[in-house]
Amino acid sequence: MEIRHLRLIKTIADEKGITRSLDKLFLTQSAVSHQLKDIEERLGVKIFNRTGKQWALTEEGKILYETASRVLAEMDKANEQINELREGHAGTIRISTECYTNYHWLPSFMVKMKMLYPKIVVKIVMEATHQPIQKLLDNTLDVGITSDPLDNKNITYIELFKDEVMAVVPAGSSMADKKYLTAADFSAQVLIIHSYPLETVTVYEHFLKKHHAEPKEVLAIPLTEVALEMVNAGMGIMTMPQWALKPFHTSTALKLVPIGAKGLVRTHYVAIRKEDAGKKHLNDFIENLKEELIK
What we know:
Order of helices and strands: HHHEEHEHEHEEHEHEHEHEEH
Strand content: 15-25%
Radius of gyration: 31 Å
Shape: rod-shaped
Number of strands: 11
């Protein structure tokens, strides 16, 4: 039995007969009569008892009517949700970044999105941190924030902004007076990172590896406040962009020093699946995200 058959049965029952149901079914009387007869013959049951102008559902007809009511209501709900998605008024957006330091701007942005788009739900997928592109391909995410775009025909990248990763060093150290740090400087230092793997750390992947250098030691400290205190105490150095330090009350005992003669500049991108590029709620989300991060 098809959806159109259920709609025909429900409409005839609601309109108390074929004649009044024609306008709603957009069919001729002969077409409705033929379809109804075909359904009854297929099922081997009578759906309506017809006495004169009276149309009453049989016991079997009542079962089909109740089924039609549920199914058609669900179909109408599904169509409404699809239309809302198409128009950009509703949807769920699962987001993750490649680094934990990028998360501090998300809560305020989520509040803004909730006010602008009440039916758009933004979910942070923390477990996808460090691997947003792979999680996009796995359909675990809808939006990934990355500075290391993977060449894949199924992913679309939209540039967000550029920043410069700097070394955070004690103000009283010899490194604080340098114009920039070299790979050799890192080789003599303990490098404090947020988390492994080391390949996800920008200074290692895009600077130290190119110079075939490694830090003297690596410490993974997931809490930025604690990591900054360790730098302040002379227990190591860390790297991060200046904007990422804004949420933390850093003391004058710390100084930012460029990395390499040309600086360690990176570009951040929003990554989405190519098949989702036309979804209005995602495009609205990305435009608002650009405004949030560039201001």
